[in-house]
Amino acid sequence: MRDRLDELGPDTEVVLVTFTTDDRAERYADAHRLPFPVLVDESRSVYRAYGLGRGSMARVWGVRAARRYVEILRRDGLAGLRRPTEDTLQLGGDFVVAPDGTIAYGFWGAGPDDRPTVDELIDAVGRTRS
Q1: What pLDDT, in 10s, does the model give residues 4-56?
Q2: Angle value at C-alpha 11, between 7 and 13, nearest 5 degrees
Q3: Which of 50, 61, 74, 93 is the least buried, fewest Cβ under 10 Å from its Cβ?
Q4: What range defines the domain where residue 27 resides?
């Protein structure tokens, strides 16, 4: 997405909302050199307002997660694994908010790896301009 931010237009603001701590959010933003703000919602009131619930253990820690951990172990060995420090069952989403404040596009993830494509997000932003 970072490589295509210019396609969103100069009047589009991208914001990452997370429920982690301020400290962790700042370290993440710095490590990934994010060119947009990161807002912290430790109480998850924004998550609730947008209807983002929690996933099941089977969906979040199922076959896809197992495959991913096998890849990490093959690549980095045990050094690549870290104990989760966050709520791994909290589901995320991606939203485009129109200039009038309404949700023009919503994607409610069913699991940690469930996200819309960058093309879908760029198209949704474009539709708010028509």
Answers
A1: 888 888 888 999 999 999 999 999 999 999 999 999 999 999 999 999 989 87
A2: 80
A3: 74
A4: 2-54+90-127
Question: Is residue 64 in a domain?
Answer: no
Q: What is the pTM of this model?
A: 0.76
Residue 3 tokens read as 């490589």
Kindly give, in sequence order, each residue whose CB lies less than 8 Å from that of residue 40, ignoring residues fewer than 6 positions away: 17, 18, 19, 20, 21, 22, 25
Provide the pLDDT for residue 10: 85
77 within domain boundaries: no
Give the count of domains, the chain: 1
For residue 59, CA distances in Å to 106, 108, 113 come to: 21, 14, 10
